[in-house]
Design a protein that fits this description.
This protein is mainly alpha-helical. The chain is 67% helix and 0% strand.
Length: 151
């Protein structure tokens, strides 16, 4: 199958250019497959979820990121809230919302979401890489430089 160009007509039949129609979903699907393959190769599996649910979570989170990349913030926010609703026992929904708010320039809400991600890691530290919390704390510190400087 030939690769679809950004400016080609969308194969869904909408008449729109691919980049303004289904490109975000196509990229999300590709990211989901890559993430699933990477997680499987690394042996990563969220113990809260079965293999099928892990794949669904990866695909849903990657769809949020694709919407963010495409600057489709309303769609990204709806998709992130769907991740939160479908997978409340894992941090991914809050991470997606944090990335969305960060992309929109709402640093306070992004930092609040990242704090919730850290809370998941602190509640079950055996499930997370030792540097996971540090990564999100560094993001918070960059998003709230005045609060970090006051400490």
């Amino acid at each position: 199958m030939a690769k679809i160009g950004r400016n080609d007509r969308c194969p869904c039949g909408s008449g729109k250019k691919y980049k303004h129609c289904c490109m975000a979903q196509g990229e999300a699907a590709a990211r989901g497959k890559l993430a699933t393959a990477t997680a499987t190769a690394a042996g990563q599996h969220d113990p809260h979820l079965c293999d099928d649910c892990n794949e669904q979570l990866d695909a849903a989170a990657n769809a949020v990121l694709a919407f963010i990349d495409a600057r489709k913030f309303a769609e990204a926010e709806q998709a992130a809230h769907e991740v939160l609703a479908r997978f409340p026992a894992v941090h991914d929904g809050y991470e997606c919302l944090g990335r969305l708010y960060q992309a929109k320039g709402d640093n306070l809400q992004a930092a609040d979401c990242y704090r919730k991600v850290i809370a998941f890691a602190r509640n079950e530290p055996h499930l997370y890489d030792p540097h996971f919390i540090d990564h999100f704390q560094n993001l918070i510190d960059r998003l709230e430089p005045r609060a970090a400087a006051a400490d």
